[in-house]
Amino acid sequence: MTRLLDVNDLRVSYGAVVAVNDVSLTIDEGEIVGLIGPNGAGKSSFIDALTGAIRNRGGNVQFEGRTLDRLAPHAVARRGLLRTFQSVELFDDLTILENLQVAAEQPTFLSMLRDLVVPSKPKGVDDIAWASSLCDLDDVLDRFPQELSHGQRKLAGVARALAKRPRLVLMDEPAAGLDTDESIAFGERLRSLPGHGVSVLLVDHDMELVLGVCDRIFVLDFGSVIGVGTPDEIRNDERVIEAYLGGHDVEA
Ligand SMILES: Nc1ncnc2c1ncn2[C@@H]1O[C@H](COP(=O)(O)OP(=O)(O)OP(=O)(O)O)[C@@H](O)[C@H]1O
Ligand SMILES: [Mg+2]
Q: Residue 168 domain-assigned?
């Protein structure tokens, strides 16, 4: 088993508020790992710190054996660590295809110079086709985001991250607002990602989805990890049930 992500004692604070309190978490290649916890537990802050959107106040992050500390978000993305956002952030005046093209192209200074001299074919064509088909968007590529269902827009957000061929995707509530059928279909797509070389950190409040697709689950409460285990272990963990699962429908 190859270690993909190794987070040690990560700490994030906003002034006096400690949002992530010395959290350690690992993800191996091919794993789908869940990160759950009540509102305000620190899940989005954790993702923000990993992807360089905010600075961590302590701890360190290794991705494929190299440190990510102090890298800017675009540099983290170039290493193969991508995220999706809690709110869908598509460009409303671009079609779904154009949204995916913008994501996949990611020009570097050198590639822009090269294109000035020898214009190349559009980059990422295969990656876009792959991401679109995995997220079942082939029939809506020429539509604008507002013409899609909420579920399809969420999938387009996921496809946008996949179009960059990541090694690991951190998904922040991708199933929020999906109905039961859409959530089940989404879970099936998620399960197929490791077979394509993509590992996943899944943050979501949809417990059927998280308990159904994850290999291991970390539970956060007030910024601290209060439980780690397989879906069965988490379902039966007294502390987790009290802090979080009690108020949710968690039928197996
Ligand atoms: N930009 C910010 N400035 C100040 N405090 C913040 C900021 N962002 C988050 N917080 C605080 O940090 C804590 C963790 O918030 P965070 O958004 O990471 O939680 P979350 O687990 O993602 O919650 P949710 O399930 O509602 O998305 C909360 O107390 C929140 O109020
Ligand atoms: Mg959040």
A: yes
Total domain count for the chain? 1
Q: Would you say 240 and 234 are in contact if contact means Cβ atoms under 8 Å apart?
A: yes
pLDDT tens digits along 2-27 = 999 999 999 999 999 999 999 999 99
- Say whether pTM exceeds 0.85: yes
DSSP 201-247: EEE-S-HHHHHHH-SEEEEEETTEEEEEE-HHHHHT-HHHHHHTGGG
43 lines ligand 1 (CB under 6 A): yes
Q: CA-to-CA distance for 240 and 30, rounded, in angstroms?
A: 25
Low-confidence ranges of the chain (pLDDT < 50): 249-252
Backbone torsions φ then ψ of 6, nearest 5 degrees: -135, 105
Q: Which residue has the tokens 């980059």?
A: 123
Cβ atoms of 117 and 50 closer than 8 Å: no
CATH number of the domain enclosing 82? 3.40.50.300
Compute, in angstroms, the gap from residue 194 CA to the centroid of ligand 2.
24
Predicted pLDDT of residue 241: 85
CA–centroid distance, residue 130 to ligand 2 (Å): 28
**pLDDT value for 250:** 47
How many angstroms is it from 103 CA to the middle of ligand 2? 22
Q: Which 3 state secondary structure label does DSSP give 70?
A: coil
Q: Nearest residue CA, atom 3 of ligand 1?
A: 14
- Summarised one tens digit per residue, pLDDT across range 139-158 is 999 999 999 998 899 999 99
Eight-class DSSP state of 36: E
